[in-house]
Design goal:
- This protein is an all-beta fold.
- Helices cover 0% and strands 48% of the residues.
- The protein contains no helices and 11 strands.
- It has strands at 2-10, 21-25, 32-36, 44-45, 58-62, 68-72, 82-88, 91-94, 100-102, 108-115, 120-128.
- The strands form 2 sheets. The protein has a 6-stranded antiparallel beta sheet, with no helix packed on it.
- The relative contact order is 0.24.
Amino acid sequence: MLELTMASVSGEDAGATAGMTMAEAPSTPGAVLRVGRDGSVCRLVTPDDWLFVSRVHLEFLCGPDGGWQLSWLRGSQAEPSSEVRLTAGGYTQSLAYGGTVPLPRGGSGEIVIQERTAPRSVNVGFYHEV
């Protein structure tokens, strides 16, 4: 099971937890959870006018062994207007635009989509049950 919680945070709301949304999916091969502006394909949807987030920005995919991976999907622009960081187990790494990383089994952490030109971010917490 992968559990996600998401909060969209702007500078004046830093530290607030109001407006959090949640999603979960069983660790079944092929299961998918997506984060982005397009509510027709994303389980966690960001504000429509937050253009630093793509229509489908992040994808969590369960592999054949029940492990989950995170992908930052390439959008319509050659260069992204955000940065994506993954923090797990006290270690933080930046994701490459179009890149994929495995999520730790039985672990938790946070993925942050940070706008490059304003103090806005989308914070997605995760917990991957074993």
